[in-house]
Amino acid sequence: MDLLTHLRAYLAVADEGSFTAGAAGSATPQPVLSRRVAALERALGGPLLERGPRGVTLTPLGAAVLPPARDLLVRADHLLDTARGHVLNDVRAALPPQADPRSLAELRRMLTARGVTVVLDDAEPGAREQLLARGVAQLIVMPVSPDRAQIHVPLGGATVPGTMRSRRLHVEQLRDSDETPGPPQRLLLQVEDDVPHVRDRLTQAAHAAGLAPYQVVTAPPAAEALTAVHERGDVLVCDTEEARRHGLEWRKIVPPIVRGYRVRLAKDHPSRPILDEALPEIVDVLGRALGAPAADRPPPAMAQDAADG
Question: Which domains occur in the chain, in start order?
Fold first, then answer.
């Protein structure tokens, strides 16, 4: 019996609460799913699920084996990811979700020409660091304070076009006022900016400008944030390319707020020498992908010296 396959079938049914939904969610024919669960029950010595008019419920045995089943599958997936990540010249890059795909295509072409196959992935900052530590990713871009960064991306406030007349967004403009109808505008920080050198600086500026604590919202879901910009006139903190992509008007924030990024590479990987040699080009391409102005991207020597392991 393929234990992992049968455990996946059991979890699909347990998570969805029915064989029908489990089959749909796992893209497995229902008869096949049922046979796999039945085989697992025989192997474990008892029923795992009880069928009812409203779906299935876990038996005591089913409830007992559910946590270790999840843990086993997570560990199995980690093992497979690690093995794939250490294949010669196969590099997984974990990057910020807002990276421009046109520049990422350039990155892939550049490294392919050097004999390195690149698999692109996006993840939140903390997850990117974990992927590197676990050996799943071999190239990541991490947020760091501007004084340690290879890449500097100016941040601004994005609003519905025509709603603000000034060329720059001064934080004090968002103070609640009896002269302004409706609720006060809020500053919406994305998950990517939920890091001390962005979040704390902007929070301190908002406090100094007299904004209420609720006017700085950290890491709302992307759909919720964009809807709030259109629905209640909130301000999305982002770079110029993100604003353009969403059809919003962008203004630089005063005081200046900057995303800082640093490229980090896996220490013990067959492709590390190739990545080290290509690092200045990698930093330059990723700088374009993340919205850094050309003048703010480091010269090749600085990019090379700043490499992390």
Answer: 3-84 (1.10.10.10), 87-142+261-305 (3.40.190), 151-259 (3.40.190.290)
Q: Tell me the DSSP string of 131-164.
A: HHHTTS-SEEEEE--GGG-SEEEEEEEEESTTS-
- Can you read off the two tokens belonging to residue 57? 């419920």
> Residue 183 has which token pair?
């609720």
Whether the full predicted model's pTM is greater than 0.85, yes or no, is: no
Report the length, in residues, of the chain: 309
pLDDT in tens, 112-148: 999 888 989 999 988 999 999 988 899 999 999 999 9
For the stretch 124-131, contacts whose Cβ atoms lie closer than 8 Å and that sit 24 or more positions apart, written own/partner, are 124/97, 124/191, 124/192, 125/96, 125/191, 125/192, 125/194, 125/195, 127/94, 128/94, 128/95, 131/92, 131/94
**Other Cβ atoms within 10 Å of 230 Cβ, number:** 13
Number of helices (H) and strands (E) in the chain: give both, helices first.
11, 11
DSSP symbols for 156-210:
EEEESTTS--SSEEEGGGGS--TTS-SSPP-EEE-GGG-SHHHHHHHHHHHHHTT
**142-176 in b/e burial notation, b at 16+ Cβ within 10 A?**
bbbebeebbbbbbbbbbbeeeebeeeebebebbee
- What tokens does 252 get? 């630089």
Residues 186 and 255: their CA atoms lie apart, in Å, by: 16
Positions in the chain short of pLDDT 50: 297, 299-306
Per-residue model confidence as pLDDT tens digits over 73-95: 988 887 876 666 555 568 999 99
